[in-house]
Amino acid sequence: MKQEMYTFACGCQWPIVGPPPRPGALPLLDIDTENLPFCPRVWEILGQGDTKGVFQLESYLGKKWTRMLQPESGEHIGALGSILRPGCLRAMVEGVSITEHYCLRKNGQEDIPPYHPVIDEILKLTYGCLCYQEQCLEIARRVAGFNLQEADALRKSIGQKIPEEMAKCKILFLEGAARQKVVPQEIAEELFNWIEKSQRYQFNKSHAMSYGLIGYDTAYCKAHGPVYQFANWLRFGSDKPDPLQETWELVQDARQHDIQVNPPDLRMQEAHFQTDGLQIWFGLTDIKGVGEKQMGPIRAAIAQAEDCLQKKITDWSWLDFLFFCSAGLAVSLVIRLIKTGALDWMKQPRQWMLDQLDHWSGLTDNEREWIAHRELAARGLLAMEVLYPLPEAPVAPEEPVLFADENEVKAYKENVKKYKARLRNHQSKCEKILLQREQKLKPYACLEDALVDVGKTRSEGGGTATKKRTGIIQSRLSLLQNKTSLRVDRPDWIAWEEEELLGVALTCTRVDAFDSRDVNTTCKEYAHGKIGYMVLGVQIEKTKEIKTKNGKNPGSLMAFLTVSDSTCLLANVVCFSNEYKLYRDLLREGNCIYMQGERHEKNGSFIIKKVSLMEK
Amino acid sequence: MPVNNNYIVVFDFETGGLNTSTLEPVQIAAVALDPRTFEEVDFFQSLMRPLDMNNLQAEAMKVNGLKKEQLTVAPEQGVVWEQFCKWVKKFNRKGKGRSSLLPLPIPAGKNIRKFDLPIAHRLCKTYGMVSDKGNPNIFNDRITIDLEDFLFHWFENSDELISYSMDEGVRPFFGLDTQPTHDALVDTRQTALLIVKYLKLYRDLLTRKDKNGDRLIKFAGSCKGK
Prior knowledge:
- The structure holds two protein chains of two kinds.
- Chain A is an alpha+beta fold.
- Chain A has helices at residues 40-47, 60-69, 74-83, 86-90, 98-106, 117-122, 133-144, 148-160, 163-180, 185-198, 205-224, 226-236, 243-256, 295-309, 318-324, 331-339, 350-361, 365-378, 384-387, 406-438, 447-454, 467-481, 491-502, 523-527, 577-583, and strands at residues 5-7, 13-18, 28-29, 92-93, 96-97, 260-262, 274-275, 279-281, 534-547, 557-564, 569-575, 592-599, 606-613.
- In chain A, 47% of the residues lie in helices and 11% in strands.
- In chain A, β10 and β11 form a beta hairpin.
- Chain A is elongated, with a radius of gyration of 37 Å.
- The two termini of chain A are 64 Å apart.
- By secondary structure, chain B is an alpha/beta fold.
- Chain B contains seven helices and five strands; from the N terminus they run βββαααβαβααα.
- Chain B has helices spanning 58-64, 68-72, 77-89, 112-127, 147-155, 166-174, 184-207; strands at residues 8-15, 25-33, 40-47, 106-109, 145-146.
- Chain B has a five-stranded mixed sheet, sandwiched between helices.
- The chains are: A alpha+beta, B alpha/beta.
């Protein structure tokens, strides 16, 4: 039977092994990662500098130089592994780094100066730049007649930088060159100096090509299955030195790819990042302070509550969660779930839920249990006999067959008297309880109603043990019923809490709290190439101030900024010195501003012309 | 020093006495101000039931306008204080990118150093809202914003302000509503308004520039003056 194939827009084809997890998503494909094809789409995204998640090219330098280089082959992506190293970036030839020479020559923006036919042939693939240690070995072999072992010894000696060894190597190299007569002696001397200097920055090609291969693999996956790839990267982000920062960067990049990343959802009960093929959700253990060990209690509490309520968590109301599930979880855990939006499906403001949780947690275990049982009984899920059990009847004192003396008779009569009193008391209690069993209970509409009920003492039919507790519960009720504070979610509060606990604001940003009527461009629209005079409403993430060296006012201050709004991050914003002088005090990290400006023709940066603080 | 990112909490007690060590607080009101925009982002208000109704002094009750009947049914002091502290804690600031000397909100008000903060500290110690060293730990203990300081700065070289009292001097001078409201939240908001006015004045002074874009106020050691 012919296997059904899925064809990407770029032409890549892979066999389908399963249906898509939801309509619109990619089907399950059998991708042979050992035999990935040459795909122009991969070079396209690398050429755009879209390197987050791409092996060895994720950093700022990786992004920058990949964009400069515009790799089009395995040779190029492998070379990036070598030329991105600090040594290469610092090694200057005629005032330009080796890295830049490589990029300019590859793109035909600089001529490759011919040196010697033998050397030109060795350095052909790297456009005349000495990038790899293997190239040094080849020069030693061809020019000085070394075998590979001798050439490697030469490389090691030079690498160790011991003057006596290097002097010996130089003599051997020059003697060999003289014997081989491939190049004149002056060129041989020049070549040795070149090899000596290049040891500081060279990388070995086998390593570079291996890295390049993995880089291509990761870029391929990003180009063809970005949602799954981002979900995987987020999952393994916890292994990075700064997991929250990594999460923030990945989510910003995902937004650039129009991939929606959602806060955790308790209904899913998933521990880690997961995807349905179109969107990504945080897992519960991706919340700061929630560990794997808590997943067991979470799932157990949910299962128990579902069993009790005889309905699935997806059908729960806020009171269902509060009364029947929250008791099985630590308060600090529930607070984190609320603050990160894991309970947003209850359609209640998070601040309101926190307030309710706070008052609920202020009750004793017995009081909470009393409310829960009463609620179950009201819903017909618990028999009234269980809710209001009859007390045990007092036991009548046993009448002795024979009394020893008068004292015993007296004691027995006393016991009988006490027994009769207890019996009367018991009967009275039973009457009250039987009456209670007759009442028609209504499910609670809100926590306040529950507090009214539980706030009475047991003798009054409530759930508290003492008058003191009654006073405390009534105080809590008063605070709940009166408007003691705003219980609404401000965008900046939501953004702040999500950044603290998830590493990134997902639901909204601080910018959402402000008036955006004058804004005519989002960060994403700008990133996608919008031109013209634009006004963006953004939050300043980072400001990097530098002193200019050139231009009209050398020595003056200018700034590079990273800004964001709810659509994505913009890392290439520039404020030149004239404007920076005027607006420096507004361009502080954390400020929300309207920035007006235009796109720079050559490098695509946003050039700020005017700034003002955002208003509500 | 990074710019301030600590929220400012302007608060005020109404009390049943004048001695901060023994008086009964009967009401608390507070507003929280965003440190960058100075906008009010939240408020808190509640009556508080005194621990000893006999401790209420008639003169003080005349000032705050509250009746004993109201206070008898008010929420218990301990419960209100716990809720207030939790409300204040919402404005704690920690985490990367928002460095502050201490992440706790900055307390603000009128005469709070002498009056409201000692009461707050007493309540914190009574109900256990203290650090390991036994110090109250809901507010920033390094920075305090007291309107009394601003009034002095504004008027130390002027006799225009007839009194530092809100009713007799401050409200009429600044054009605020002088009708007695007996509403602690209204009073707190008026105090916050004046504090914000003063803070904005300082921000404007320090950042005002001439036509060349140079700062008007420069300091010797500051490259920010260029």
